């Protein structure tokens, strides 16, 4: 069998893999049944649907002819690195690293760090635009999670808020 679209082929494989992993992980919870759903029911169904979508995408990549074959290009290492680093930095800034004695910096600093680091993935760094975006995200997150949902997330660093 000949792969007619590499992008769709590998996307389908990725969807199938994540769907199977999600479904398998959901079986560790009580699944229940349709009338009395347990905590694992929704993740199990979501994983199954994701795997089915992946199977359809994989099938079409083998059957449907695409002009040029939609080859996969080179890996974009810079965006991959900065997006992963931004998420790791967000977690460290929000909760700290107690194992080495680094305190959490709170939600506002974590969002600013996340936005600034993630914006480096593009290579075009516009300080004013990034700071405006970070401010809007920080205010929106504060209103959504702290004010409306009343979640107990530290907003400011421990050495400021006590």
From TrEMBL:
It comes from Caenimonas terrae. Coiled coil: none annotated. The keyword Transmembrane helix applies. This is Tripartite tricarboxylate transporter TctB family protein. The lineage of its organism: Bacteria, Pseudomonadati, Pseudomonadota, Betaproteobacteria, Burkholderiales. Keywords: Membrane, Transmembrane, Transmembrane helix. InterPro entries: DUF1468. The keyword Iron does not apply. The chain crosses the membrane at residues 9-29, 41-64, 76-94, 100-118, 130-149. Residues 10-154 form the DUF1468 domain.
